[in-house]
Each structure stands twice: as structure tokens, then as C-alpha cells.
């Protein structure tokens, strides 16, 4: 957020091509809260012991697409810069997974479980404008 706010630059180690599906933490929390209340014999519990929580399909974006949405939503040009992944031991496989499109997935789980559609990436950015705009 700081590089977007202060330098108008979105930085990521994933490269221009890797697509990631963005989901708001409130959507994740809503699914978790509802799932905790489901009885053990509920079809969602029986059929899906693991719930893939994602944003809508339009939230599956590459870095340049993200920079474009950021630019449109913030009303100023936001560029993309690829950076080296942080050197945390043991996370090399995670970065490789992400860079190869490992989070390029989409499900309907948020709406199925909460009854509300998940937030779009544009809505997420609009909500965070205060943190992404220079003072």
C-alpha cells in the first residue's frame, strides 16, 4: 500500500503474467462464521470438507490489470514493478506456486454460504482509497 500511496507504483514478485484471484478478508470471515454454524450433516459440510473461498471471476487479475483498476479507481496513473521475492527460508515453493498461477481460481462459495456476492477488486480498492492516496 505504501508504494502505491507514495510512489504510484504497485510492486509484486509474481511478474506480469501470473493471475491471482483477490478476495476481501470480510468475505473470508463471513464464510468462516457461517461455516462454523453449519450442522455436520449439511450438504456443504458433507460434499466440501474444504471450502475454496475466492472473489468473483472478475477478481482474477494479472499485475497490469491490477495496475489499470488501481489507476481508474484512484484517478491517477499507477504503474507495476516486479520485485524480488522476500528471502524467507522455505517459501520458495510458495512463490513458485503463486507465480505459476496457483491462485488463479474462482468459486461461488462466498455467495453460496453467506447469501451475499463477494466484493469486486474495484470495490476493495475503493474501500481502501484513504490508504492508497497521498495525504
UniProtKB/TrEMBL annotation:
Organism: Florenciella parvula
Name recorded for this polypeptide: Epimerase
Family matches, as InterPro entries: Ergot_Alk_Oxidoreductase, NAD(P)-bd_dom_sf
Lineage: Eukaryota, Sar, Stramenopiles, Ochrophyta, Dictyochophyceae
PANTHER family membership: PRESTALK A DIFFERENTIATION PROTEIN A (PTHR43162:SF1), PTHR43162
Superkingdom: Eukaryota
